[in-house]
Design brief:
Layout (H helix, E strand, L loop, with lengths): L6 H18 L3 H13 L3 H26 L4 H22 L4 H21 L26 H21 L4 H11 L4 H26 L4 H22 L4 H25 L2
Helix pairs in contact: 1-2, 1-3, 1-9, 2-3, 2-10, 3-6, 3-8, 3-9, 4-6, 4-8, 5-10, 6-7, 6-8, 7-8
C-alpha cells in the first residue's frame, strides 16, 4: 500500500505515539516504528525516518513546554544531545548495511531488560548507584559536573544517537533509565531532559536520512501532526499520574514494543 493512502491511519497512530511520549518522556519513539510496520505493513527502512519526524517534532514541542516550566537540565541535554547528534549518522549508515532481523532481536532483548528494571525499581531503588555519577546538590537545580558524570552523559548520548538513526526510535528509552540510574534528578526533570535530547538528536538523524534518500516528507506529515496532537493531550494526563504509575507505564510500553518486534522478526525467519 502506498504511504499516501495511509493518511487517516497515520494520524491515529501518531496520536498514540505522541501521548506515550508525553506520559513517559520516552517510549513513544520506540512504539512508532512497530506500529507503522505491523499496522500498515511498511518496511523498516520506510518507517524509521517517518517515525523520527513525528518523534522529533513532538519532542521539540514537549521540550519547549518543559523549558518554560524550568525543569529541563539544559546542560545535561546539550551534552547528551551533542553526543547523540554526532552518533546518529552512524546509526543511519548501519541501518542500510546490517541484517534487520539481528538488529531487531537485540532491540527486543534490551527493551525487555529496560522494562524489568523500570517496573521493579522505585525512585530510590536499590538498583540505583549508591553514589550516582551525576548529583544535584540538595536545594539546588543544577547538576554538579564531574568527569565521571560527563563520561556517563557522553556514553548515554552516543548510544541514544546510534539507536535513533538505526531504528527511528528517538533514544528516550535509553536516556530515561540511564538518567534515573546515574543521577538523583526527579522523574519529571529526567523526562523533560530526555525530550530535549530527542529533539536535538532527531535533527541529526533526519538530516542523514534525507541525505541518503530514505526520508519521505509527504508520508511523514500526517503521522507527525497526529503525534503533536497526542503529545498535547497526553500532557494533561501526565500531571495527574503518580511517578510510580508513569514508571510502570513506561515498562508496559517497553514490553509491548518488544513483543511486537519479536513477533514480526520470528515471522520473517
Amino acid at each position: 500500500m502506498s504511504p499516501l493512502a495511509d493518511w487517516g491511519p497515520l494520524g491515529g497512530l501518531g496520536l498514540v505515539v505522541g501521548a506515550v511520549l508525553a506520559l513517559t518522556g520516552a517510549g513513544g519513539g520506540a512504539l512508532a516504528v512497530p506500529l507503522l510496520v505491523l499496522v500498515l505493513g511498511w518496511s523498516i527502512h520506510l518507517a524509521a525516518p517517518v517515525a523520527l519526524v513525528a518523534v522529533g517534532l513532538s519532542a521539540w514541542l514537549g521540550a519547549a513546554f518543559a523549558l518554560r516550566e524550568g525543569i529541563v537540565r539544559y546542560r545535561a541535554a546539550m551534552v547528551l544531545g551533542a553526543a547523540g547528534m554526532a552518533a546518529a549518522p552512524l546509526g543511519v549508515w548501519l541501518a542500510q548495511r546490517l541484517p534487520q532481523g539481528v538488529l531487531l532481536l537485540a532491540f527486543v532483548a534490551f527493551m525487555l531488560f529496560t522494562a524489568r528494571r523500570m517496573w521493579r525499581d522505585g525512585p530510590a531503588a536499590a538498583g540505583r548507584d549508591k553514589a550516582p555519577a551525576c548529583v544535584r546538590p540538595e536545594g539546588e537545580q543544577r547538576l554538579h559536573w564531574t568527569r565521571p558524570c560527563l563520561w556517563v552523559m557522553l556514553r548515554v548520548g552516543a548510544l541514544a544517537g546510534v539507536l535513533s538513526g538505526l531504528l527511528g526510535i528517538g533514544g528516550g528509552f535509553v536516556i530515561v533509565p540511564a538518567l534515573d540510574r546515574h543521577s538523583n534528578l526527579d522523574l519529571r526533570s529526567i523526562q523533560a531532559t530526555s525530550l530535549a535530547v530527542i529533539a536535538l538528536v532527531s535533527v541529526s538523524g533526519l538530516t542523514a536520512a534525507w541525505w541518503s534518500g530514505q526520508l519521505q516528507p509527504v508520508a511523514a506529515a500526517p503521522f507527525a501532526v497526529g503525534a503533536v496532537v497526542g503529545l498535547l493531550m497526553g500532557r494533561r494526563w501526565a500531571m495527574r499520574l503518580s511517578t510510580r504509575a508513569l514508571r510502570r507505564g513506561f515498562a508496559v510500553v517497553a514490553v509491548v514494543v518488544a513483543v511486537m518486534l519479536l513477533l514480526r522478526t520470528l515471522s520473517h525467519l
